[in-house]
Amino acid sequence: MKIKSGILGVGSYLPEKIVDNFYFESIMDTSDEWITARTGIKERRVASEDEATSDLAVKASQKALECANLHPEDIDLIILATLTPDMLLPSTACIVQDRIGAINAAAFDVSAACTGFVYALTIAKQFIENDTYNNVLVIGSETSSRVLNYNDRTTSVLFGDGAGAAVIGRVEVGGILSTYIGADGKGRDYLKIPAGGSRIKASHDSVENDMHTIHMAGSDVFKFAVRKMAETSQIAIEKANLDAKDIDLYVPHQANVRIIEASAKRLELNMDNVFVNLNKYGNMSAASIPVALDEAYREGKLKKGEKIVVVGFGGGLTWGSSVIEWTL
Predict the structure, then answer these.
(1) Residues 104/78, Cβ–Cβ less than 8 Å
(2) Distance (Å, rounded) from C-alpha 216 to C-alpha 248?
(3) Could you tell me if 316 and 113 are in contact, meaning their C-beta atoms sit under 8 angstroms apart?
(4) Is residue 283 annotated as part of the catalytic site, yes or no?
């Protein structure tokens, strides 16, 4: 029989510190009304001085393992999606592997920006269904506050910190019905952190010119996202031999409420069937989707047997979606 993969457990962690829109009113020329109207964001979480991406990931992972009723040594592989690793070397996944005691797990990071969790989910699906591994821990964790320019009102108000995790393993019925990922490197300059890699090394000038922070061509990213979110979702739905009307819950990347509403409209989905929490957390990049999944599940909005679509877009440019029959 063909092996099926599905989600065995979910978990998330949000830092305690809350930064609302009125904070940005106090440091730059903007307002709560302006931010809310254009993004839908009211507040976001910010990691404390002593919290790194791995710290958030560890707490989310422990909750996911508890939800799955598994021990750390049961995990065969850890895939961590992030654009804010603890450091360039080693991978943050290796740090998490040691911290949670997953002594039998291989570990690596995935860099696909806000689409990272869907990319990692797609990879995990292959390992399970090819009978290579039994249990894969997929994590999306970000401390985006570390790479923001707080003089730039177009980017600094958008992002928040957090982590979400899911344990992927074998299921008898349902599970991950389809995945679809893609990329277009021609749009690489639309969303980027220019310095810190091999192209532009860290220097006094790179720091002075804010080249280690997120730079975004907002209008271009918006147009791309509105088109790709719906298109990518539709492809995954068709690959699962379903129609949009078969979807019980739409869980999009939480970047901008106008993007979410536009993509839902294109799919002819009622907003009552769309999960939105960016008003509380902002754009958590690779963590947005797994945090939303955990929150939707714990709020009773995800029930066993229901079919959901997760979809994301991000720097690269990248995009990805998956249709999942919920098994928890």
Answers:
(1) no
(2) 33
(3) yes
(4) yes
Are the beta carbons of 145 and 287 closer than 8 angstroms? no
Where in 172-217 does DSSP place strands (E)?
175-183, 191-192, 215-216
Query: How far apart are the C-alpha atoms of 155 and 46, rounded to whole Å?
Result: 15
Active-site option among 21, 94, 114, 135? 114
What share of the chain in percent tops pLDDT 90?
99
Say how far apart CA 75 and CA 313 lie, in whole Å.
Answer: 28
**69 vs 118: CA distance, rounded Å:** 23
Token pair recorded at residue 147: 């790479």
Please name the residue that has the structure tokens 């769309």. Answer: 274
Total count of residues recorded for the chain: 328
Distance between CA atoms of residues 256 and 134, nearest Å: 36
CB of 51 closer than 8 Å to CB of 80: no
User: Of the residues 21, 135, 256, 283, which is catalytic?
Assistant: 283
Joined tokens for residue 34: 């302006």
Written as six digits, the tokens of 261 are: 């509403």
Q: 129 to each of 27, 115, 300, 325, how far by Cα in Å?
A: 51, 22, 28, 16
Taking only the tens place, the pLDDT of each residue in 285-301 is 999 999 999 999 999 99
Q: Decide: 246 and 267 in contact? Cβ < 8 Å.
A: no
Based on DSSP, count helices (H) and strands (E) in the chain, helices before strands: 10, 13
Catalytic residue among 21, 67, 135, 253: 253
Question: Per-residue confidence at 1, pLDDT binned at 50, 70, 90?
Answer: confident
Residue 154: strand pairing partners: none
| pTM more than 0.90 | yes
Please say whether the beta carbons of 244 and 235 come within 8 A: no
DSSP state of 127: H
Q: Which strand (E) or helix (H) includes residue 227?
A: helix 218-239
Amino acid residing at 201: K
Instruction: Identify whether 67 is a catalytic site residue.
Output: no
Q: Across-strand partners of 12?
A: 164
278: Cβ contacts below 8 Å, ≥ 6 apart = 39, 40, 41, 254, 255, 256, 257, 260, 288
